[in-house]
Amino acid sequence: MQENNHSNHQSGKKKVLPKRIILVRHGESEGNLDTSAYSKIPDYKISLTEEGRAQARLAGSHLRELISGHGSCPDWRVYFYVSPYERTRSTLREIGKSFSKKRVIGVREECRIREQDFGNFQVQERMKAIKETREKFGRFFYRFPEGESAADVFDRVSSFLESLWRDIDLNRLHKDPCQDLNLIIISHGLASRVFLMKWFKWTVDQFELLNNPENCEFRVMELGQGGDYSLAINHTDEEMLEWGLSSDMIQDQKWRITGNKADWNDHCTWYLRSFFDYELDSENDVESN
């Protein structure tokens, strides 16, 4: 009986969504500065440069300004997810200097948002040839020898997203409904791109056009009036074009600010047309020949 009451209590709770989900790429690393570092140091142990730490501190300051509404939104909290790599954990440490203890609900190390696996130690000349082959084959499906493809990363990031929604549904983040919750995910360039691809239902062709975020650059997904998240609330058309979004993708982001999620298929006729040869404007059945 006690268990049933608990279940009823849980089911009666209204799900409160985070106000923002923010994706942050790590700061400049020793590997970004000198790719030969990967031939001597395991990828997960590559550390930030001094410039990378400074980038992270600056990003933390900008994130706090954004989340606090430049001081106009007093009741907000943050929850961090971080890749287990040294450079992402160090980025979190520097970003965290902008947030007092009372503002941080929690943090979780999450292996599924780690960097794409390129193999154990990377020989510089060999990696150059491999990456040239990847450009010919396609960045999404090409699998590095002894490593992963972007499609592999997509699968584990998709699994992380399912866990993220369970955390939100069951209020495992201990969110107070009176507070604005902001999820900050500190990860890597590719992991951030496939996260957005999965979230916004972007196709493989659309993914291939996306550019990697710069070090400590962040993408802000904010909850719109219609109950969906949008990049267009905090980012300009020019920014999204620089990221590789097409005009259709940008218009979709603008629609998501106020659009009803249930109407997405009707709105995104361009998406349906990318899969079919015929126009879907007519309600009449297609006659068979």
Automatic annotation (TrEMBL):
Q: Record's Gene3D superfamilies?
A: Phosphoglycerate mutase-like
Q: Name one GO molecular function term.
A: catalytic activity
Q: Where is the active site?
A: H26 (tele-phosphohistidine intermediate), E115 (proton donor/acceptor)
Q: Where does substrate bind?
A: R25, H26, G27, E28, S29, E30, G31, N32, R87
One family from Pfam that matches here is His_Phos_1
Name-wise, this protein is Phosphoglycerate mutase-like protein AT74H
Specify the species: Hibiscus trionum
